[in-house]
Specification:
The chain is mostly beta strands and 744 residues long. It has 3 domains: 2-100, Immunoglobulin-like; 111-252, Beta Complex (Ferric Hydroxamate Uptake Protein, Chain A, domain 1), CATH 2.170.130; 271-738, Maltoporin, Chain A (Beta Barrel), CATH 2.40.170. The chain is built from 7 helices and 35 strands. A hairpin with an 8-residue loop joins strand 11 and strand 12. Helix 6 packs antiparallel against helix 7 (428-434). The longest helix has 21 residues, at 2-22. The radius of gyration is 31 Å and the shape is globular. The two termini are 61 Å apart.
């Protein structure tokens, strides 16, 4: 206790010095308020911060817990201290205010998001993690995924490339599939997002590095994220049924809070650069190298460090303004943000403008709650030919070209044109300067919900959501590029994605006496997704000094290629959950979801995904009450089934198309004939992942020291693969569910 008081005194003196440095002068008309602050045990509490709400005017309690502050008569004082519950007290002309600070219980009473609702952390039976503003990755983040990186156990996040806004691979508890999608399901403010790729493809010229897919969550403003909840095991993800096998990430954005309107600004500037270049031969070292046969390497007389020519110091700047507030029955929050991020490769950059607004209104004595959310963004991506995709070869990637290129090669010829030695030894500076690759993406995510208390403890909720994306990518490859044999090439590729959602569900909370508590959930959901794309490629530009995609009429239209595609998918679901709490010690959860998807075969449209979990709060037992330092000890056990439907669309249906024969003619009439392109499979269904989880939650010293240990086992059956068809068959391959003979 003596050591603790000394620490409090030292902390108090330190805070007192800091506040003294930044305290503001007050006018003579202000009154002086003084008082004493104690802890819950009646001991004086030094180091408590006392601030006039909404200002920089503040004071700190001294070693005896006393404070003095000059304020206007009708203001609110905010008392705060680490580990204590913050208190707000209105002065109302008082000159003496004494306060008793209560210890803050950390963690257990925190409300976390689960599927279709919230729950106290102490009542959870599944394996989940929550990130709030204090826990998230504070580095420069362009999307919520980056804010999770390195912050959650069992979640591996890898950035696919160093491009600004590049996609990131997220694996929750490892991979659950082979060929199907492995990304988790993202749910933003109650709207499940579709994991379809919304990055238009790049150029079509041989060897062009099209680049990796962009981050699908980059349209969100990281500054507007209130919390991120990660659902890991089947007992928590089964409520999302056919899409829960890879885990679920619930993202909640900031909302308005009761009080006067508050204007906030956040901004930063950062610098990115290559930490260390690869150690390659300099021009002089290269010239001195001798082959085994005694010959010298080709020497063009220059001394070029190709890494210096492609790398740059990228500057990032971010600016965000938000305004929010509210009253007893209504709240509002609005924000606008701007992000400009330059890449470490010259010509790469992403700039983003986004805005959001969220309003809520209570009616009829708070029996009806209406909420509305709207998020919109406009993103410009400027890309360079960098790729990890197959088909382009190493010469299509300017980084690899820079690493392997002869350092004696000059950047330009004497006449000012680019020196390009060969089509498989490309000049990376020419690739940067003569390729223009820009993608514009507009995205709008909105939802409206109505929550009605039909009767006591019986609540009905309607949730309507829409997510619309329009993306266009324009790629210009100048005719001066030596590897182009078609006098320049222009590609305009577009993707439009629409995602519509309607959900209806009821919740019912019932308590019997002091020992039994039930929470029932029953609902229905319908989601419709449509994605369309169209691509245009034009070659043969005879003119110079124009941007090809802005003047396609100058190209050779006899070689133009135009393609389009579209698919629609539907998902209908019935779901339910029962939570049972006995004496705040024994917790049971039962989930079930019945999903139907248009992706699967006529005979297997629907699948059922159940789960069950039990938790025992051992720290609430009488035989552990003597362990004063133990704050929490909970044992959890869960089991459940989840599904994965992330496979190509229409694979269960028959498809026919044209295919030229060996002579390029079919029956001597056409250059192509009708043939089978896909063999139907009416029995194809979801992959199913079985997962068992055993977990332990513990906490000591009022949960100031806490942790979680989970042991789990996952097994995926009915794996979806494209495998060779059994003869005789119309096509050589077919998508099928591959059975596991060891699983019964």
């Amino acid at each position: 206790m003596k050591r603790t008081r000394q620490l409090k005194k030292i902390t108090g003196l330190f805070i007192l010095i800091l506040v003294s440095l930044f305290s503001m002068h007050v006018s003579a008309q202000q009154i002086t308020v003084n008082g004493n602050v104690k802890d819950s045990k009646g001991e004086d509490l030094p180091g408590v911060t006392v601030v006039e709400k909404g200002t920089m005017n503040g004071a700190v309690t001294n070693l005896d817990g006393n404070y003095t502050i000059s304020v206007n008569g009708n203001v609110t004082l905010v008392f705060s201290f680490i580990g204590m519950t913050t208190q707000e007290i209105q002065v109302n002309g008082q000159t003496s205010i004494n306060v008793v600070m209560a210890d803050e219980t950390i963690g257990l009473e925190e409300v976390v998001a689960i599927g279709y609702g919230v729950q106290r952390k102490s009542d959870l039976t599944g394996a989940t993690n929550r990130l709030t503003a204090d826990d998230m990755n504070k580095s420069v983040a362009t999307s919520p995924v980056e804010m999770m990186q390195g912050r959650v156990s069992g979640v591996n996040i890898i950035q696919n490339s160093g491009e600004p806004g590049s996609g990131m691979s997220v694996r929750i508890r490892g991979s659950s599939s082979i060929r199907s999608g492995q990304e988790p399901l993202y749910v933003v403010d109650g709207v499940p997002l579709d994991n379809a790729n919304i990055t238009p493809k790049g150029g079509s010229a041989a060897g062009y590095g099209g680049g990796a897919n962009k981050n699908p969550l980059s349209f969100l403003n990281p500054n507007e994220i209130e919390s991120i909840d990660i659902l890991k095991d089947a007992s928590s993800t089964a409520i999302y049924g056919a899409r829960g096998a890879n885990g679920v990430v619930l993202i909640t954005t900031k909302k308005g809070k009761k009080g006067e309107g508050t204007l906030a600004y956040d901004g930063y500037t950062g610098l990115s650069q290559v930490r260390k270049k690869l150690d390659l031969l300099s021009a002089s070292e290269f010239k001195g190298y001798t082959n085994s046969n005694g010959s010298k390497l080709l020497d063009k007389g220059a001394a070029t460090d190709w890494q210096d020519e492609i790398f740059q110091a990228g500057i990032t700047q971010s600016h965000n303004i938000s305004y929010g507030g509210g009253s007893e029955n209504s709240t509002y929050h609005a924000s606008i943000g701007y992000l400009d991020q330059e890449g470490i490769i010259k010509s790469t950059e992403m700039n983003k403008i986004n805005g959001s607004i969220k309003v809520a209104q209570n009616l009829f004595d708070s029996r009806l709650k209406l909420t509305g959310n709207l998020t919109a963004s406009h993103i410009n991506d400027y890309r360079a030919p960098i790729t990890e995709q197959s088909g382009s070869g190493f010469e299509g990637d300017l980084i690899l070209s820079a690493l392997k290129l002869n350092p004696t090669f000059p950047i330009k010829n004497a006449d000012g044109s680019y020196y390009q030695h060969a089509i498989d030894q490309r000049n990376p500076v020419a690739m940067i300067d003569l390729i223009d690759d820009e993608t514009q993406t507009d995205r709008v995510l909105g939802n409206m919900s109505a929550e009605l208390e039909i009767a006591k403890d019986l609540i009905y909720k309607l949730n309507l959501g829409v997510d619309r994306t329009v993306a266009e990518r324009r790629v210009n490859q100048n005719q001066k590029l030596s590897y182009l044999s078609n006098k320049g090439e222009a590609d305009i590729n577009n993707i439009t994605a629409n995602n519509k959602l309607i959900e209806n569900y009821v919740t019912y909370l019932k308590t019997f006496g002091e020992d039994h508590s039930f929470n029932f959930l029953l609902g229905h959901a319908y989601q419709f997704i449509k994605v369309t794309s169209h691509d245009m490629n034009v070659k043969g530009f005879e003119v110079e000094d124009i941007k090809y995609t802005d003047a396609l009429q100058y190209g050779n239209f006899s070689q133009a290629v135009v393609n389009s595609s579209a698919y629609e998918r539907e998902l209908q679901s019935f779901f339910g959950r029962i939570n049972y709490n006995y004496k705040e010690k024994y917790l049971f959860t039962f989930n079930g979801r019945y999903d139907g998807s248009s992706k699967f075969g006529e005979n297997k449209k629907y699948g059922y995904f159940p789960s069950a979990a039990f938790a025992w709060r051992a720290s609430e037992e009488e035989f552990l009450q003597s362990f004063e330092k133990l704050s929490n000890l909970k044992v959890r056990f869960g089991w459940g089934l989840t599904g994965n439907q992330e496979i190509p669309d229409k694979i269960s249906l028959l498809a026919v198309g044209t295919e030229p024969n060996a002579n390029g003619y079919f029956n001597g009439v056409s250059s192509s004939g009708i043939t089978f392109k896909r063999t139907p499979n009416p029995d194809i269904q979801w992959e199913t992942t079985y997962q068992t989880n055993l977990g332990f939650d513990f906490g000591f010293f009022e949960n100031r020291l806490s942790g979680t240990l989970d042991i789990f086992n996952k097994k995926t059956v009915d794996v979806l693969l494209e495998i060779p068809s059994k003869a005789p068959a119309a096509t050589s391959t077919q998508w099928q569910n591959v059975p596991d003979p060891k699983f019964k």
